[in-house]
Amino acid sequence: MDSILTEKVSLQQLTLLTVAVPQRESFQSAIGVRNERRALFVRWTDRDGNWGIGESSCRPDPYFNGEYVSGAADVIESFVFPRLPAEGSIAEIMAILAKVRNWPFTTAAVLDAVFDLRRRQQRPDLIDNWPGEHLRNVPVGISLGLFDTPQAAVARVSAAVSEGYPRVKLKVSPGMNVETVAAIREAFPDLYLGFDANGSLSENDWGLLKALAEQRPAMLEQPFAPRRIDLCQALKQERPELRICLDESITDIGDVISAHQMQALDEVNIKPGRVGGMPTALKILKYCKNHDIPCWVGGMFETGVGRQLNLRLAACMPNATAHDLSPSSRYFIHDIIQNPFEMDTSGRIDLGDAAPVALDEARIREYQISEKILNTSRQ
Q1: Residue 328 near residue 147, CB atoms below 8 Å
Q2: CA 262 to chain centre
């Protein structure tokens, strides 16, 4: 890792591109309803005209972790780009990005663009150098939103099982109809079924948590607000059989270590963007591997640009049951890459040779909302 981070990268131009990619269907969680993937892309161009692209995984609103798309573009233009050198090592770029606090999805997109530039020059990145087995076929699960009726939920889960998904994860929230998950469990008693509350529950929802636990979930993801690790600890003490997975709570390696030492987690959802990029994601993966903590990769409705990066990280986890990285067709009418990722009937996505994705420039122009080009004349 150290040798890669010391290599130099030049900067001639940074392009900030915002697009709105239509979804196939609405998706409702405790956070809200979304009908499109509004995304910010960062294109890094060096002095020789080589380029790389990174996708910020943040939402258009500040309801997941505080970041939002238009704010991310402003942070890069106002606070990141002016500090970037005309030429510097990747480690120096990372140090500049580290000065920006609480905008990890944003800074990760800049760093991802740098690593993508390297890969387009056929130079390895940190994932390429990860020791151990790298899967070619990555198992993926499906994350389903909230449903109005148990019948609708059972029908949708049935369709997902028929499509080959090895794991199904359901969104849950305060005040939900517990009969919905009970109906699913009755229809699919052996299904690998997980629940995700997106941090929406509190100490006032112990009754709901008890009812959810009775449905034998494979895991309960992020039951409480990100900083309420104490409640996760209390829940584990009361119901030790309930496996708790943390998502929004994990923003750095220190969060994993603290929650682990408190015995407040059983597994970790690693979102590379949520922790500021691949260097930290790999540190977390290493810690989890050394301490026998199951982990998997979560998604944020990324297009094929961010999805490939997530799939490549998931390929480094041969023991994971599945990852929240469904194929492009699950989310979008049209993706913005030329060869969207597809899933086979066994619930796996073939990464092929994992070459950098080819962009569908015409589709990008169709979905484009704004573009800002930041040029540097620094030498």
Answers
A1: no
A2: 25
Q: Is 171 a catalytic residue?
A: yes
Which pLDDT tens digit goes with each residue over 260-299?
999 999 999 999 999 999 999 999 999 999 999 999 999 9
Burial of 228 (0-12, 13-18, 19+ CB in 10 A): middle
Nearest to 94 by CA among 126, 66, 120, 123: 126
Residue range(s) occupied by CATH 3.30.390.10 in the chain = 2-125+361-375
What token pair was written down for 105? 């999805």
Beta-sheet strands, E only, within the chain: 8-10, 13-28, 33-45, 51-56, 87-89, 137-139, 142-144, 168-171, 193-196, 219-221, 244-246, 267-270, 295-297, 348-350, 368-375
CATH 3.20.20.120 spans which residues of the chain? Answer: 137-350
- State how far the Cα of 324 lies from the Cα of 318, in Å rounded to an integer: 15
Marked catalytic residue, from 210, 236, 271, 289: 271
Fold observed for domain 2-125+361-375: Enolase-like; domain 1 (3.30.390)
CATH number for the domain formed by residue range(s) 137-350: 3.20.20.120
* Burial (0-12, 13-18, 19+ Cβ within 10 Å), 270: buried
Residue range 343-362, pLDDT digits in tens: 999 999 999 888 999 999 99
Count of residues for the chain? 379
Question: How do 295-297 and 267-270 pair as beta strands?
Answer: parallel
Q: Which of 187, 102, 195 is nearest to 141 (CA)?
A: 195
Reply yes or no on whether 286 is catalytic: no
| pLDDT on residue 379 | 43
Query: Which of the following is catalytic: 8, 99, 171, 289?
Result: 171
